[in-house]
Amino acid sequence: MTPKALERDWLALGREALDIEIEGLREVRSKLNGGFVEALELLGACTGRVVITGIGKSGLVGRKIAATLSSTGTPSFFLHPVEGAHGDLGMLRPEDVALAISNSGETDELNAILPTLRSLGLRIIGMTGRSDSTLARLSDIVLDCGVSREACPLGLAPTASTTAVLALGDALASCLITWNRFEKEDFAKRHPGGSLGQRLSACVRELMHTHGMPAARESVSLGEALIALNEGGLGALALTDEGGRFTGILTDGDVRRLLCGGSVNPEAAVSAFMTRNPACARPDVSAAEVLDVMESRQITVIPVVDGEGILVGMIHLHDLLGKGHLKFSV
């Protein structure tokens, strides 16, 4: 660290930057008026998509606003104004609503496409720091997100101004959650990765089969075992000794290999055909650990045993993935 760097009170400078950002948010909060309500009503009544557009730092903030709206029940996407001017405006429909962002309101690339948006039938909400700007003039509704100063010591880099736009976008999204009666269940449907993460952090005992699980004594005949395997519905039959301790497993794959290998005597004890010492799990391990074992061994069912080796449950891949509740495509 240089002597010059040591001379500065970095904590004070950091706090000053945050104070300026907070000051900017208070400014924007104080300027909320009927325009915010009009914008909310327009977005809430939108039967198409919310098209968010901007360039530079405003574009980056716009992408985040689009992501927040989409994940909370308001279909949205980001449109780069330059790409829009070169053909991407063709994806727009009259029922869409545009949310255009520019702190100065004089961004040429953005303002150049606004008349076309209007000609396509879109209503335009402008988010700008200057209510007398070109963007404001071309917009149907104007949201003033201007701040007195930036947190940047040079007063040049968009800092407090982009924070203000981001926060105003969050305010719209928060209100639209209530407007659309968007619930936790709706949020979960749009976040399958989040739902999956919750399931995989659970203990195996919370997800495993215990009642009516496919299990039999290893002394039963192969024919009896096949009936139990077929009725079990998990594609595997857990086998135990007379004391209930897990000793092996018979799977659909085992049966297929037996049939392909030649004649099978259904009267013989299943112990002659089962796989001994297969993978098993403890009830207190996480579902994620079991999924790792399934993936590494290319299996879909794992028996669950306690500390004494007693069979207490079985868990299937679908138990880990939500039994049809997770959706990875639309």
Automatic annotation (TrEMBL):
Gene3D superfamilies for this protein: CBS-domain (3.10.580.10), Glucose-6-phosphate isomerase like protein, domain 1 (3.40.50.10490)
EC number(s) recorded for this UniProt protein: 5.3.1.13
Domain SIS: 39-182
Lineage: superkingdom: Bacteria
UniProt site positions, description: Catalytically relevant: K57, E109, E150, H191
Pfam families associated with the record: CBS, SIS
Keyword 4Fe-4S: no
Limits of the CBS domain: 208-267, 274-330
An example Gene Ontology biological process: carbohydrate derivative metabolic process
PROSITE patterns the record matches: CBS, SIS
Protein name listed in UniProt: Arabinose-5-phosphate isomerase
